[in-house]
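We modelled the chain as a single entity of 93 amino acids. Its sequence is:
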Amino acid sequence: MTVARIIEEQRKTTQSGKAQAGRWTLEFERQQPQRPDPLTGWNGSGDTKTQIRLRFDSREEALAYAERKGFAVHLVPAAPVSLKLQAYADNFR
């Protein structure tokens, strides 16, 4: 059975707004282990599903798609954002 991972996208560190917040990405977990290529030495596998990423506007849309296609789902919510407020003078203590 194909296992899909649904991840909540996090805000980029250089982004101050919340324009892309709340978007979800569906990607597939690896079915085959990676192995070194005998010619180049690079790691790889024959599993091409890991190259696919689907983006959804809500978690419900992503879950509905995975259920419709019959994927087992692993849901990964975003880590909570914690702001540390400090004064500029605190840098020199």
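As a brief sanity check on the tokenised model: The chain has one domain: 3-92. The longest strand covers residues 3-8.
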